[in-house]
Sequence to fold (651 residues):
Amino acid sequence: MVDPTATESGTLLPASGGDGHLLVETVPPAPSSLRAFWSAFSENRGAVLGLMVVAFIAFLALFAPFVAPHSPIEQFRQFVQQPPVWAGGTWQFPFGTDAVGRDILSRLIYGARISLGIGMSVMIVSVALGIVLGLASAFLRGAVEVVVMRVMDLVVAIPSLVLAILVVAVLGPSLVNTIVAVTVVYLPRYVRLVRAAAIAELSKEYVVAARVAGVGKLRLMFVTVLPNCLAPLIVQAALGISDAILEAAALGFLGLGAQPPIPEWGAMLADSREFIRAAPWIVTLPGLAILVTVVAINLMGDGLRDALDPKLRRS
Amino acid sequence: MFRFFIRRVALTLPTFVALMFVTFVAVRLVPGDPIEARTGERGIAPERLAMLRHELGLDRPVWQQFLDYANGIVHGDFGVSIVTKTPVLHEFATLFPATLELTLCGLIFAVVLGIPAGVIAAVKRGSFFDHSVMTVALTGYSMPIFWWGLLLIMFMSEYLGLTPVSGRMDLINYYFEPVTGFMLIDSLLSDQEGAFGSAVAHLILPSIVLGTIPLAVIARMTRSSMLEVLGEDYVRTARAKGLSPLRVVGLHALRNALIPVVTVIGLQTGTLLAGAVLTETIFAWPGVGKWLIESIARRDYPALQGGIMLISGIVILVNLIVDLTYVAINPRIRHG
Fold:
C-alpha cells in the first residue's frame, strides 16, 4: 500500500475503495506491493543485516525473563565486579558483574526492553500526534497552521538535549517523563513531514475528485490523503526510533532519565566512570549495546528509505 | 533582497517571545518553591517568608512577573543565581568562552576530516575507501557520545597515558588570570612554557568526542553533494577541456558542492551545543553545558531558566545568520 508503484497499477483500489472488483479483472496481476517492497529492501545487504540484528534484540527484549540468566536487580554481594568470561571470569556471570554484584548480561537483556520500549513509545506517540497536527495544519490552514507550525519552530530552535533537560526538570526524572521529553523533542519532524506531504497531495487530481464526490473532511484526511503520505513517514519513524534511544540514553547518563535500579543502558553508564581502571567492562558493554542497536536500526531505516522512497535515495 | 532580510529577521522575533514564555512557564511549573530551596527544610518565619517573596516579586500577579521577566531580558537581566548570588548573565559570560572554544575545536575537527573524506569517497565511489568512510560515518552518526568519551578516556588517558583526563589546564603547574577566556590564547599570552601544550592536550579528546557526530553528518553530506555535482554538465565540460582531475574536482566541483555543506555545518550549532552538555559533563569541562546540568541538581532555577534562554537564543541567532548568508551567496533560493 505504501509502494508508490502500487498506486499506479491499481492494486491499491480494492483496499481503499472496496468496489475494486471490476478493476481487478482488467488489470494484470501486479506483484503484491509487499513482495515488491521486500525485493527492493533485500537488495540492500546492510539493511537486511540491520533487520536481523534488530529482530534479535527485539527477541531478547520480549523474552528477557526466559533468556536472562539472572534477575537484573539481584545483587550478588559476594561476586562484586566479577570480570567477564573472556577476561578470566566464570560462566555464572558471562559478561561479569557491576559494582554491587548485579549480572551485567541480564541487565543488558532487560535494558533492551527499556531502550526499545522507549524508542517504540516515542515513535508511536509522535507519529500519531504528528499525523493529527500535520494533517490539521495542511487541511485547516489559517490560524491552526500558524500556531502549530510556530510552536514546532520554537521546539526546533532549542537544542534537543537542552529541551529534553528542561522538560525533565519540570516533570522530574523518570522513565515515563523521559518518553514525554523525547517525544516533545522529536515531534516537529513528524508534524512538518506530514504537513508538507499532505499539502503536496492536496493539489492532486484524485483529491479534487474525492472532494467533488462529496467525501467528508475527516475521511478525506485520513482515508484518501494519509495513505499516500505514508512512505516518508515510515522511513522517518524507523530512523526516529534510533534517535529516541540515543536521546533517552543521554538523559539516563546525565541522571535525568530512568532511575536506579532500572537497567537502562545510559543509566548503567552514569557512574561507571570510577571503574574505568578497575572494571572496564562495566564501562564498555552498555555503550556497545546502545551503539549496536542504534547502528542496526539506522541501517534498517536507510534500507527502508531506499525501498519505499526512491526520491530520497542517496545517489 | 533587503525585504527578505527584514522578513526573515522579523520571523525570529515571535520565536524569541515564545522562548521567553516557555522558559518562564516551565520554571514556574517546577515542583518545589524557590524560597524553600534557599532556606532549606528547617522552614522560616511567615513574616520572613513574605518578605522574601516580596523581594523576589513572587507576590505579584503572574502576568506582571512575566512582563518583568521579559523586560529584564530585553535589558540584559537574566536574573540572579540562587546558589552563587551572581547575575546569571555574568556566570554565563564567564563560562561561555570555554564552551565556545570546545565547540569551535570540535567543529574544526569535523570539517577538516569530514570534507576531504567526503570528497575522496565521492571521487572514488564504490572503492574500499568509500565503503570505509560510509561505515565510519554510520557508526559516528549512531554514536552515544558520552560512551565514546569514556572509551577514549579509558584508552588514551588511562591505558596509554597520552592525554589528561579532565579539565582545561594543568592547574598544578600553571596559573594565569583569564584574559580572553580562551585557554589556547590565554596560555600563549601568559608566556609560561608548556602552558599552551597543556591547553592543547586538554582539548584533544573533548574536541574529538564533540566533533564525532558533526563529522559523520558532514562527510555524508559532502559525499552526496559532491556526487551530484560530479554528474553535472559543466564538470563534464571541464573534464573534456582537458583540465587535470585535481583541478576539476578541487576547483570546479568542490565550490558548488560545498554550498549545501556549509548550510549543514551552520545548522550543526544546535547539535554541538547539545553535545557540549554531555562532553563537558564527561571531561569536567567548565563550560555552560556542565553548569546547566549542575544548576538542575542544585535546583538553581534562575540559572536554568537564563541558561536555556541564552543557549537557545544563540542557536536561533546562528541559524538566522546561516540562513541569511546562504541566501546572500545563493540568489536562486531568495524568493522561497
User: Anything to note?
Assistant: The mean pLDDT of chain A is 84. The two ends of chain A are 25 Å apart (CA to CA).
